[in-house]
Amino acid sequence: MNEEILDRKNLITMKLLHYFITEKNYNPIILQGVENEIWLENLNQDYKIVRIVSNYIHNNEQFEFDLFKTKRIMRKIKAKTLSFHLNTLSIFTDLGDYVDLESVKDIDCVKVFEEKDLLKYESINHVFPDIVKKLTYNGEGMQLFLKITSDINEHNKSDSEKMEEVFKPKKPIVTYTLIFLNVAIFFLSWLFGNYDEILNAFCVHGPSIRIGQYYRLLTGAFLHGSIFHLLFNCYALFVIGSQLESFLGKARFTAIYFFSAITASLLSIVFNGNGASIGASGAIFGLMGGLLYFGYHYRVYLGNVVKSQIIPLIVLNLLLGFIMTGIDNAAHIGGLIGGILMTITLGVKYKSSKFEQINGLIVTILFTAFLLYMGLVYVK
Length: 380
Known about the structure:
This protein is α/β, with parallel strands linked by helices and about 375 residues long. Helices cover about 65% and strands about 5% of the residues. Strands 1-2-3-4-5 form a 5-stranded mixed sheet, covered by helices on one side. A two-stranded antiparallel sheet has the order 6-7. A hairpin with an 8-residue loop joins strand 1 (about 25-30) and strand 2 (about 35-40).
């Protein structure tokens, strides 16, 4: 009898794993000290977390403790994934007859002895309308186990290849080219002795841009006021740019950089009136925004990098801009927003949906139109 129960639990567990991993793109979560249960995550699904619990729970006290333990683990996952809500589905494959099964906030609990039991739960069939059909297989016994295991292994292999493709370091040619251009323009201007003239002719300057010198929206991002200004921005561009270019690819990276430079210049002339502005920092803030959005999508793989490094870096630099004089924080904010919006529009490989990209494009167009109107038309 025990062997029969073990076979049933293993079989339904394997079927559920096959469905959630191969059909719904859930990924296993590695948890220390957790036994007889499997945690899966897909932050793009209605149920962000799916638990498959094969441990025998025979009374209400054990069930209450399971809820307590689940909530505690969920809090840790929320902190790691920067999530406010984690709708969780707990599937119990060995629940005692005298357990009062109940769902609580953010945790739906179901009892599944065999596939057809899933039909009892409206919420599951609403989110996963094909689940019962997909759990029905031809074959049985060891042959079925081998088929399911093979499918899961193939899916995991495919996922590993995708992650390797995304995170494999690539040579940041565009980043090196941008650094070269910034350095070359700075030193050539000094070499030919017309540095001040070049600054006056190509800096970000609202009145000049409004009379048709639109090239200043970009050229100002390649000018720097001092050697320290140049070195600081080039170092930041090297550190952030080389990472983002490797993650997103050269074309996406280039589009994000130049679009961020333009949105940085536009917001600068909105707030700075007749003042002038120069420097690549607005575009670099755009790269930070792109890295933030990429990190959000891949936060499960990056661990605490988003929370411990990327966000503090952005916040610290913005605070310095508000505290210190001579820093164009409007350009920084404009570049940051522009970088995030352009990254949403272009998408993150293997993560972004077409719906998400279309929404990003709409918001990007509206944001750009607003900046153009405020910067070029509406002038106090």
